[in-house]
Amino acid sequence: MKIWSRSIVGLATCVVAACSGAKAPISQPQENLADSGAAVEADASDTSEAGRSIVEVPSIWQSAGQVEAACEEAAELTEQHRQTILAVEGERTVANTLEVFNDLILALDNALPMTDLVANVHPDKEVRGAAEKCQLRLKKISSEIQRDPKVYAALQALDKEALDATAKRFLDHALLDYRRGGVDKDEATRAKLAAIHEQMVQVGQEYAREIREGKKEVLFSKKELAGLPEDFLAASAPGDDGKIHLTTDYPHFFPVVTYASKESTRKKMYLAFLSRAYPENEKNLGKLLQLRQQYAALLGYDSWAAYTAEDKMVGTAETIGEFLDKVAGIARPRMEADLADLLALKKKDEKKAKEFRVWDRFYYVNKLRTQRHDVDSQKVRQYFPYEDVKEGVLDVAAKLFNVRFERIEDENIWDEKVEAYALYDGDRKIARFYLDMHPREGKYGHAAMFPLYIGLKGRQLPSASLVCNFPEPSKDSEALMEHKDVVTLFHEFGHLMHHLLAGEKKWASHSGINCEWDFVEVPSQLFEHWAWEHSVLSGFAKHHEAKEPIPKALVERMKEADELGRGVHVMRQIFYAALSLEYHNTDPSKLDPMKLLKKVQKDYNPYPFEKGTYVYANFGHLEGYSSMYYTYMWSLMLSEDIFTKFEEAGLMNEKIALKYRKSILEPGGQIDAADMVKNFLGRDYAFDSFRRYLQGDAEGSTSVSAAAAQSGRP
């Protein structure tokens, strides 16, 4: 999943990932106004209390000209709202200042998320480039506004005592964002901050683009691909040179490293994967780290890590480090036991093997699960044709959250294979979303939820898109999915429901996924549990030939087998979290990215460093999440605690599901994340459930082992 951080004025939120792609911007939240003209398409019926038509359908930009026109409109509308605020004479009120400021946020927030989606998914490179230019322009405007002392003074002049609780929260967060943006600095410092911010956006775009468009082609003979599934080989015909041309994109990468019996084949693919975007991104990352440090220093922080941690649940960079070390301390013994088991298995194939390497991971974990638990991934995938999985996840989400999905035809989509859906709560349409599920040239390469519009009561419905890279069905293939891909789809759908159900707010920063960034992965990681429950899977997981439901005994063995390798998985995630933290907690003028990579790898990574690999050049979360990759583990701690209520009552328990929807999903950014958890659990969150997950002694505990894949970190 992917995620974008909320800007200082509450502009986009986070989820593109990584989430999975994740790139740290979860994909951001975004919105559109009814009065923003060409940028939206309004429903003809007038259903709002104020007599305003509610915006239901986002207008997807299809040409560079449309991008430029929408960008100009957003810029002009933003400036109009700013001037309206500044022109007020006399008493500052909710109507003449705070609501206009809300409109100002929306004018930008309805366009910025679309720039992110279009830049990452549009088939036309020219359109993607225009979206990047628009994003740069609008983020510059956002940066200027968040440092505008006149707008800040106007907000400060409001009488807080006259505001209701939600309006006061909206104002307090806006003022905090302004101070964190340097509005109280002198004019020269504000100008420096603005210039640095613009450069950060530009360099960040270059870093992300190099990864997105920098996939590598890897050539194999058919002999080298021994062990690969027959349907994979059938869909991979040799070229004129007699070689099978594969790429480092997920639909090729994961099958090769999971099933190829020749170590040289797995090594060849993995080394190509971990050398993407090098050497270009070594330079880009160096620039980005320098700019971030300069920015944080001007604001009075010791490091970028300290700056970004301040408004999260953790509060400080030190807390992040302590949390990672605590988790590593628990997980390391299990990692060492995992490695011993896996190396012993490898030695049966290669008697002289002395080390277990990164390219051995998926292959031997799968082999060990097959031997110990009779769980063969090639047999498991026979139960997961793509279309059945998609419909199954929709059905599960509809029942759990008591909503209805309706497929919509003839949408203004960016690619003919994209699907559009409306979301209904009873007979009331409450949201819209898109599924862009298969790989194509120039598209974002991982899995992420891209929020488009936030939902505002009486004004607009929320919308978003899932962007994934799952196998694509064809006349010759039903596109059988690995179970980890099924888990990934549940993960991303958890993000989607969070964004879509957190609508109908008055204030922009209260709608959608505008919670603390280190809470944003909770709904997605929680929903992964449903991908491990037989009562859930049996509803859609049927053998693609025999049409028989997946056996309960097999699912139970899958859950037992998933315990294998959890130690190495957790420690690998800790490695990435520590790397993202240390890169942003070190003086860039003294930083040697390779030297630090090797140090952190030695401290946390289960596998030795491989010459010719450059993780920092293709670790997309360094651009989006920056120092905050720890959020996956932090959110997992919270989701494991929340899941205890479903374990007790049943995964499809209507009462618990409704309480979860009301307490966790619907609030958006209207209350603090810690309070959301307390409202659901009836107590403060605790570490106990997560400790059991790490130690592997929790009865019925299930895994989120797809987190590495969905977040872009195999």
Overall description:
This protein has 714 residues and is α+β, with helices and mostly antiparallel strands. Helix content is 52%, strand content 7%. The chain has 29 helices and 9 strands. The strands form 3 sheets. It has a 5-stranded mixed β-sheet, sandwiched between helices. Strands 1-2 form a two-stranded antiparallel ribbon. The protein has a two-stranded antiparallel ribbon with strand order 3-4. A hairpin with a 2-residue loop joins strand 6 and strand 7 (428-436). The longest helix is centred in the middle third of the chain and has 33 residues, at 317-349. The chain is globular, with a radius of gyration of 24 Å. Residues 1-51 and 698-712 have low confidence and may be disordered.
Summarize the structure.
The chain is an alpha+beta fold and 714 residues long. 52% of the residues lie in helices and 7% in strands. It is built from 29 helices and 9 strands.
Topology record:
Blueprint (H helix, E strand, L loop, with lengths): L39 E3 L12 E4 L5 H23 L7 H16 L2 H10 L3 H22 L2 H8 L8 H16 L6 H26 L4 E4 L9 H5 L9 E4 L2 H10 L3 H11 L6 H19 L5 H6 L7 H33 L11 H13 L3 H4 L5 H16 L2 E5 L10 E7 L2 E9 L11 E6 L9 E5 L15 H19 L20 H6 L6 H4 L14 H11 L3 H18 L9 H12 L10 H4 L2 H4 L6 H19 L4 H12 L7 H9 L6 H8 L11 H4 L4
Parallel strand pairs: 7-9
Antiparallel strand pairs: 1-2, 3-4, 5-6, 6-7, 8-9
Helix residue percentage:
40-55%
Strand content: 5-15%
Low-confidence stretches: 1-51, 698-712
Gyration radius over CA: 24 Å
Oligomeric state of the chains in view: single chain
Shape: globular
Specify the number of helices.
Answer: 29
Mean pLDDT: 90
The span between the termini is 14 Å
Major sheet characteristics = 5 strands, mixed
Strand line-up in the sheet with most strands: 5-6-7-9-8
Number of strands: 9
Task: Assign the structural class, choosing from mainly alpha, mainly beta, alpha/beta, alpha+beta, or little secondary structure.
Answer: alpha+beta
